[in-house]
Amino acid sequence: MSDVSPQLIDRLLAISRALAGHIDPGSAFRATAIEIGTLIPHDHIDLAVLSQDGRMHACYEAGFHTSWSELAQHPVEGSPIRYVLWGKTPYLLSDNALVDDRFHFAGAFDGPIFAAKLRSRIIVPLRARGSVIGALNISRHEIGCYTLADVAVAQQCADLIAPYIFALIQTEEARRAMLAESETRNRAELLRVGASQLTEGMERERRRMAMDLHDQTLGDLARIARQVSAFRSRGMARTAQLADLEQEIAGCLAELRHIVDDMRPSVLELFGLRDAVEAHLNRSVARAKPPIAVRIADTSDGSADSLSETMRTALYRIVQEAINNAVRHAAPGRIEVLLTSTDSVFSVVVTDDGHGCGTIDPAAQGGIGHMHTRAALVGARLRFEPAGRKGGTRVLIEIDRAPADGKPATAGEQQAVSEVASC
Fold first, then answer.
1. Which tens digit of pLDDT belongs to each residue from 55-76?
2. For the whole model, what pTM was predicted?
3. Count H helices, E strands: the chain?
4. What architecture does CATH give domain 265-423?
5. Which keywords label this protein (predicted)?
């Protein structure tokens, strides 16, 4: 350091002080850009930081931004400074990068050089633990602004900030790994709690169905059996009696179909989500007093068919519960269901003009709690909101037509979701 001037030492110390207190690489670098500018005047400055495997790099810019920093990462093989990032050259110095072939080759992401008119350029490596972790890039619009002396100063700046940037990168990656681990644990806990809640709900539903069968259907069948026995003992039956008997048998069959449909949505399997929702909507309001008007519209162009069977069934169950809640508790005059779709999201909206639902607790037991659990299990977004100033409720369910996080569920998660969410 004997050949380093006191002025340079002061500036390097200023850069060191500027780094202090920052917790991410981008803000730390931007804090040093002004101080670096006092040593090496520039119109543009950026850091290219390598990923752990060395195949990709991210760009952090100070001052005006270019398309280099618009994408999260770029392949190193397409970078105009790849030879510095690969460690094949100790630096790059150019009087006019617009015509310098080292920055331009087939597949090079060199558009910003031309767009920002970055002519004079210095590129020096960032090193930490004996390896290149990125590069410091300094540019000006004018031609021939930099010398080898500037390269040496730029390298000293890079050597000073590299360890700090490296530490921040490691901290950021550790934080992401911790968040990913936490997310995995949360998903597992969600599946466990969701399965438990839905299993309890299914058991209550089984008991309800058993009571319905015992109290109504079996009672009706027993009465019909007694009537048939009476006819047999008398040896004859009048036409009116047979007609009443036929009507009672038809009623029993209708009730059994209703119970079976609740257990297994066959219309959904045979005809799709739209027809299944319409069938349930019409069945739910059939006995309502006063009558409830209904409307269903599908502008999704059959997008539900692109969802998995598990997704469709879970979505049907959520919509089914939304309709049931409106009919049983809101005293609506009208219920509408709308199926819509964009390139990325499939949505179902259930709207009623009833009393409204008030404050919704996602953790509540019962129907609404089950709706939230089913939605969470299949990655859907569920929202309750007022339908208008005069009251009513709007239930919005949205499902991404592709995984939001890009990560498939594990085999165990897929099986659990398939078995639980569609029950």
1. 998 899 987 888 888 877 889 9
2. 0.48
3. 12, 11
4. 2-Layer Sandwich (3.30)
5. Kinase, Transferase, Two-component regulatory system
